[in-house]
Design goal:
Mean pLDDT: 92
Strand order of the largest sheet: 1-2-4-5-6
Shape: elongated
Low-confidence stretches: none
Largest sheet: 5 strands, mixed
Helix content: under 10%
Distance between the termini: 27 Å
Structural class: mainly beta
């Protein structure tokens, strides 16, 4: 479990060591999932965020054929792309903005889909094992009922 405290907020997520990748990686993608979350009406307003506990759940993967091309920005389509459907699960604890100052918890699920461009020599019969990592989490209170989150993810297809 990785634990980090930033601005009095404790961030926690399942952590496995990210390998050193001494040889070139077949395919990977590093990206951010940003979201603005709203506290449900049944819960009181926020005075102070206490903690954010996050987990990444992969739901499905599938390989699709794509055109082979190169964009003006030099992005290359190799003919193969791995589509990944997943979900970020956050449990956010906060101090209520009321005289009792009780600590409340709220769950958020953020579904998303992304892709990894596979190498041109990808074999359709090869294993599709994906390694995924939460590299960092950031959250801040943006209003009495709003929270901004940004989670940095790394997904690797080791080949």
């Amino acid at each position: 479990m990785a634990k980090v405290v930033k601005d009095l907020i404790e961030f926690e997520w399942p952590s496995k060591p990210i390998p050193e990748f001494s040889s070139p990686i077949s395919a990977f993608k590093e990206f951010n999932i940003q979201d603005t979350l709203e506290i449900p009406e049944a819960k009181p307003d926020i005075e102070q965020l206490v903690s954010v506990k996050s987990k990444l759940v992969l739901h499905s993967t599938k390989v699709i054929k794509t055109p082979k091309a190169q964009s003006l920005e030099r992005q290359t389509l190799t003919g193969w792309k791995l589509i990944i459907e997943a979900e970020l699960k956050h449990v956010i604890r906060y101090v209520a903005d009321e005289p009792s100052q009780k600590v409340h918890g709220v769950h958020f699920n953020i579904p998303f889909s992304t892709f990894i461009v596979l190498p041109p020599d990808f074999d359709e019969n090869s294993c599709l094992s994906i390694e995924s990592y939460i590299e960092d989490i950031y959250a801040c209170q943006i209003s009495k009922r709003g929270i901004f989150t940004n989670t940095t993810l790394l997904m690797v297809w080791p080949g």
